[in-house]
Amino acid sequence: MNEHAAEGAVGRAHPVEEHHPQAPTYIVVAIILTILTAFEIGVFYAPFLQAILVPLLIILAILKFILVAAFYMHLHFDSRVYSGLFLFPLALAALIVFSLMLLFYSLGEHTAL
Q: Which of 24, 29, 36, 68 has the lowest tally of Cβ within 10 angstroms?
């Protein structure tokens, strides 16, 4: 291997590390997650939000999940292949859970009659 090729290989040994966040980014994400958690607790005790409690808590949980997966699992900064390998089984599991919920809802209506 010539010197030019060796320098190029050394320079490209860890190109992904440049894009990973440093400690301040993780601290900001942790603060945002803390605020979202406090908001979840506040929503639970707010009487005027009881009508939309479950959808609101689900939305907040999804937001927290996205932040954790993107930053603490490094999916935001890694190759899209890793995101696909993570999201495809997650979507498949969500589809199965949704299908089972529909199935049990349907069976529940028929047995009540």
A: 24
